[in-house]
Each structure stands twice: as structure tokens, then as C-alpha cells.
Amino acid sequence: MSHNRLILRGTWIYESEQVIELYRPVFHEAGWYHLHRPQIERCARAVNPQTPHAAMNAMLAVSYFFRWAVDNKLSLELEDLFTPDVVEWYVSDHLARLSDMRAAQHRSMLRRIGPQVTRHALWTPRPEAFARRAIKAPYRATEVAGYLRIMEEQPTERAKRVLAVILYLSLGAGLRGPEAARVHAHHLTAHRDYVTVKVEGTSPRVVAVRREFARPLMQIARDNPEGPLVGKVRENEKDVTSKLKKILDVPVHLPRLHPSRLRTTWMATVLNEDVRLGVFLEAAGINVQSLRDLAPYLTAREAPEQQYPRLAGGAL
Predict the structure, then answer these.
(1) Above 60 in pLDDT, residue 132?
(2) Are 254 and 140 in contact (CB under 8 A)?
(3) Rg, the chain, Cα only
(4) Residue 308 lies in a domain
């Protein structure tokens, strides 16, 4: 395929500038996008794309980077947004859901744009090449029990609540750390047989909370009807989970507390209960590529040959 032309809005485009002017993402009608469209175009032009495809890659990368920043309530000032730390946060939080190739392309483009649109950000030295981040291994049952046990041993009431909310939402519904930190009481809904949590942000979804955590989580919500369940957090906090973890007291006999490992523990638990794959992927907010890292932690309950009739749709 020639990179010297592409079809955009039903028309063959041969000039990079035409792509920049005509490109419209699916969220182009949003108010924030209209307001910041000139900044987005400026960023795309900053790397002087020589082909229509290069211009398209620049507009895609910047537009979705801005949308992620809006979803996470970050400043859209270029000096604040285009820093190595924020770009790498975006890589780990959002780009990890794309294919390795797409994620590497977007990351590379943002890192090319950053030095061109900022004066103070430290963009050198060049980072290591993009590598797909493998899912962290789940915690063992004894380690999970240890975390649940130390909730009442925390030094302050705030620390007790923070640890409880992180455990209940990450172990109970697979929420990422920043997602758990921004759950309010009104995001929880009690149904007849289960409780759901509405997740906002870059992977909006509704997840059923594991039954062992549903009731204590609802009690925290009843006790704290206003604001985030973890307590007050800054709207544009860059690494809210790390800040919250600093107030916790985790004894040395337990491994370090990582919400990502709590989330993986939830993933393995759910998949081992034969939840349908499509339902799981939607609840987890991931794509199927991430599943290969979970394979070692799934339980083999039957010999492979016992699965063959099921794969075949039934016995002959």
C-alpha cells in the first residue's frame, strides 16, 4: 500500500496538510475537542509529517492522548501534558490494550512530538524500546488472606478505608488502581442477587463485584455517600495509587501491594470459574491479547482429551 495517499471521508488524499485539516475522530463533536483542536493540529504539524499516512498517525496519536487526559482530568497545557512521565503513564494505562505494534507506533509518535512542543520537559535520553508489559502474576491465597487480615491493623481510619476499598474493588471487580481510587458511592448499585460497580474513565464498563466483597463494599459506600470511597484525592493527581499506598502499613512478611497483581488475581479467579470469554473481556476492559499471560495461572480441571467432545460440539 502506498503511503503517499489514503482515503479520508470518502476522498483520496495526497497531502499531509489535508489529512490534518480533515481528520475527525469518533469523539470530534465533544466540546473539549472543538476547544483544543488547534493544539492537536499544532502537535501533529510539529513533527513535519511527510506523507498522508504519517499525518494520520500523528493526528490519531495526539487526539486519543488528549481524550485519555480529559478522561483522567489532567491539564491539557502542552507543557504539563507532553512530559515523559505522563506519556509513559498513558502507555501503561491505555496503550497496553492495543496490539504491540500499534502501541509502539503511538508511543513513538508522542515521544517525537513532545520535544517539539515543550521547552522544559526532560526528553533525553531516549527511552528503551517499547516492550509489551506482561500481566503480573496473581497473589497466592495465603497472601490475599494476609492483606485482608491487616486491614484492621492499619495505623489510621483513613488507611483502613483505603486498603479496604483497593482490595474490594481490585480483588472483587478487577479495577485498576486509578479506577478504584475514583469510585464514589453512586457508582455502586445493589441488585437482588449481586452488586455492580460502574467504572468511568478510559475503559468505561459495569462489573459485578465478587460476592465475598460486595456487602463490606456497600457498607463503606453507605458510610461515605459523598466523594471517592478512598477519601479525598486531587482531581488531576498523576499517580493517585502510589500516593494512597504511602499511608498504608504493609508488614514485611507480605509481598508489596500492587493493584495490578490484585487485578490479575481477580482475572484468574473469574476465568477459573468458566465465565464466558466475551463477558470476561468486557468486565476486565482488556483485549484478547492479554490472555496469554494468564494461561499459567488457570486451573486444568480435565485432561485435554476430555475436552474434545465439547470442542467438537458434542459426541457423534
Answers:
(1) no
(2) no
(3) 22
(4) no
Domain of 283 in residue numbering reads as 141-298
* CATH at residue 213: 1.10.443.10
Q: pLDDT, tens digit, for every residue of 154-210?
A: 989 998 999 999 999 999 999 988 888 889 999 999 998 899 999 987 788 999 999
The most distant pair of C-alpha atoms in the chain lies apart, rounded to whole Å, by: 70
Cell of 102: 500499534
Which tens digit of pLDDT belongs to each residue from 238-277?
556 677 778 788 888 888 888 888 999 998 888 887 777 7
Considering the entire predicted model, what is its pTM? Answer: 0.57
For residue 122, the Cα-to-chain-centroid distance in whole angstroms is 25
Query: What are φ and ψ of residue 199, in 5° steps?
Result: -100, 130
Closest CA to 5 of 54, 43, 62, 40: 54
Q: Say if residue 213's pLDDT is above 80.
A: yes
